Amino acid sequence: MQFVDLQAQYIFLKTSIDNAIRQTLESATFIQGEQVHKLEEELCEYSGAKHTITCANGTDAIQIALMALGIGAGDAVLTTNFSFIGTAEPIALLGATPVFCDIDPKTFNISIADLEQTIINIRETTALNIRAIIAVDIFGSPADYEPLQEVAHRYGLTLISDAAQSLGAEYKNRKIGGVCEITTTSFFPAKPLGCYGDGGAIFCSDAPLAATMRSIAAHGKGSHKYNHVRVGLNSRLDSLQAAILSVKLQNLDREIERRNQIADHLLAACSSTSLTPQSVPSFATSAYAQFSIKAPANQRSEIITHLNKQGIPTQIYYPSPLSSFDIWNTQEHKTTPITYNLCENIFSIPVHPYLSDYEVETLAKALKSIQRI
Fold it and tell me: Quick one: what percent of the chain has pLDDT higher than 90?
């Protein structure tokens, strides 16, 4: 059993992927070819976003969005303390201060109550200029965007959705990518929509802002290739990756449906144990990039060993809160006890759409057996 089975996916899509690669090679347009423009149009149609800007990776996508907003030294950006470092790294790279908020104990997404209290505390106790909120759809499950947008509006902030794990998910019957003014995503191979290398994209509803992002991604390009109107990045999705993603995008909804079917079986198996799987709110459909479970205190290592002995691969996302790394230029130190507790007990098991029915049943039986440890 594989934790993520990209080989099985390739075999299923082989003819279409091979044709897309061959056509791109024959066109010999490897940078900014028609495949890239086609994919951007397809992503707009799929997500409901007005504009899509592809780029080199998901971390660049966040940095480009922050650069387009003019965020830099003296500014603060609030985000969850439970995520991959790529969420917060661009904030620090631009000289701004990342401020980490605690999470909801059930959904594992950013706590809206802690977010608002953090905003109040920063304004009362520091000289930082809070500019934006980055909400992460952890493990593919959408954050609660309506109350997040209300908080952002109340304090004059920009809300950014980090959807690196959630493309294909839905929030109140709307596809992720078309919910927020700015959404970023990653096409890392293991993501729900992944290429065969690195890639990313930004979804945006505002035309001038989207034009600025597109310029930043291409060395600050102006009216032509050798006209530069701002400092930018060299952040492009190449034509081969775009062609592959176009094929995979046509299959994404089928895969998300299968991931949810598998997750339903695993949730049922967990119900008779002391395990606490991530809770997906009724208003959302998760992309289930991972099926993640909180173990009872001090039992994670024992449970992982038990599962591994039965042939079940496991991963730990994430073993440390972002704030625990001694790398941040931050003036704000706060406790996030729920995040720290989750990092000590979280683990993930396979939920990829190419698991066989037998493998799903094997997973369910292994989970049920945990109550006997």
Answer: 97
Q: Is residue 280 located within the same domain as residue 240? A: no
The question of whether 191 is a catalytic residue gets the answer yes
209 and 256 co-located in one domain: no
Long-range contacts of 254-261 (CB under 8 A, 24+ apart): 254/353, 255/168, 255/192, 255/353, 256/168, 256/169, 256/192, 256/285, 256/287, 256/288, 256/353, 258/353, 259/192, 259/286, 259/287, 259/288, 259/351, 259/352, 259/353, 260/285, 260/286, 260/288
My answer on whether 272 and 232 are in the same domain is no
Beta strands in the chain (DSSP E): 51-55, 75-80, 97-101, 129-136, 158-162, 170-171, 174-175, 182-186, 200-204, 276-277, 284-285, 291-294, 346-349
- The residue-averaged pLDDT of 267-280 equals 96
Give the pLDDT band of residue 371 (cuts 50, 70, 90).
confident
- Predicted confidence band of residue 331 (pLDDT cuts 50, 70, 90): very low
CATH code assigned at 136: 3.40.640.10
Range of the domain at 274: 252-372
pLDDT tens for 118-174 read: 999 999 999 999 999 999 999 999 999 999 999 999 999 999 999 999 999 999 999
Q: Which of 14, 172, 191, 248 is catalytic?
A: 191
Instruction: Indicate whether 163 and 228 sit together in one domain.
Output: yes
Q: Are residues 353 and 204 in the same domain?
A: no
Helix axes 112-125, 145-154, angle to 10 degrees: 20
**pLDDT-derived band at 332, boundaries 50, 70, 90:** low
Do the Cβ atoms of 76 and 207 come closer than 8 Å? no
Same domain for 48 and 63? yes
